Structure prediction request, 183 residues.
Amino acid sequence: MIYTHVAAGIVAAALAAWGTWQVQDWRLSGQVEQAQEQKAQAERALVLEQQDRKDQLLRARASALETYTRMEAQKNAAIDKQTQRAEANRLAAQQLRTDVDGLHGQLATVPARIAAATSAAVADYAATATKLFGQCTREYAAMAERADGHANDVQALIEAWPENPSQPAAGNTTKDHHGRQPN
Prediction:
């Protein structure tokens, strides 16, 4: 009899151990499934975040390329305008030299005409005035040519300067680059 009780106890203990084992298996399987689902969700979130970062990078690159292209076009347009202004200035200076040379030719005859028509003092005055006027016109023409070149360079720099959309445009500032109020 004792053997049957011992055998029943062993069987009961084995059944209890197996039942406990089975319950633990079910519980741990549920935890494993839950952990796997959390892992899958985290992986999906990571993939979405990585895609979002790629999209942000692509947008940033496209924006940078657009800004570069716009600024490059603005610079090229400014250089083209500068070249056109330089050519116009060169032609104007050439015309001025032609006009000045013609004026010099006319002024060269003034002393002779004055000398024949009036006294010697008037002739000296006319000769001196003609010489002085000739020197002044040459200097004025050279100065105008240099000023046109300088103005052309300044205008090219203004036109080529990149604009920051968050800042007022160069022509809309309340002060110039020296800190003075514009006229």
